[in-house]
Amino acid sequence: MRKYPFILVVELIMLFIILSTYSSQAQSFLPTKLKVTVIDGLGNFVEKAEVKLFLSKEDYMNSVNPVFEGKTNAKGQVVFKKVEPISYFIDARKNKLNNDGEGVQIQELQEGRINKINTVIE
């Protein structure tokens, strides 16, 4: 009779290890996303702003070779799907408003997550 509690404990430990391994592996299978929210200097959402992501500062400065492009919705948001978990340069514009000089390089994205960033255009 004493063997059963020991076996149960061992089985629970093995189950925990298996689930922990599965959880970390499952995260790497999820696509990495980036949700950009564009706001103006007063904190209002900016609809229909053009947002571009660049791999290098040179491409960003010359506005060439964007790797992702999109327009914001009514809540000032655009979501880029299946992005690489790296750092990007972000350009957001609408009419005469832009995010030039407002922290255009974002930190490296976390793999398998929805990464979120706000950018201000003035």
Description:
By secondary structure, the protein is an alpha+beta fold. It is 27% helix and 30% strand. It has two helices and seven strands, in the order αββαβββββ. The strands form two sheets. A four-stranded antiparallel sheet has the order 3-2-5-6. Strands 4-1-7 form a three-stranded mixed sheet, with no helix packed on it. The longest helix is centred in the first third of the chain and has 27 residues. The chain starts with a helix and ends with a strand. The mean pLDDT is 88.
Secondary-structure blueprint:
Layout: H1 3-29, E1 33-40, E2 50-54, H2 57-62, E3 68-71, E4 77-80, E5 89-94, E6 97-98, E7 114-121
Structure characteristics:
122 residues, alpha+beta, 3-stranded mixed β-sheet, 2 helices
Task: Write a brief caption for the model.
This protein is 27% helix and 30% strand. It is built from two helices and seven strands. The strands form two sheets. The chain has a four-stranded antiparallel beta sheet with strand order 3-2-5-6. Strands 4-1-7 form a three-stranded mixed beta sheet, with no helix packed on it.
Question: How many strand elements?
Answer: 7
* Helicity, as a percent range: 25-40%
Structural class: alpha+beta
User: How big is the Rg?
Assistant: 21 Å
Largest sheet: 4 strands, antiparallel
Spatial gap, N to C terminus: 74 Å
- Poorly predicted runs: none
Apparent shape: elongated
**Order of strands across the widest beta sheet?**
3-2-5-6
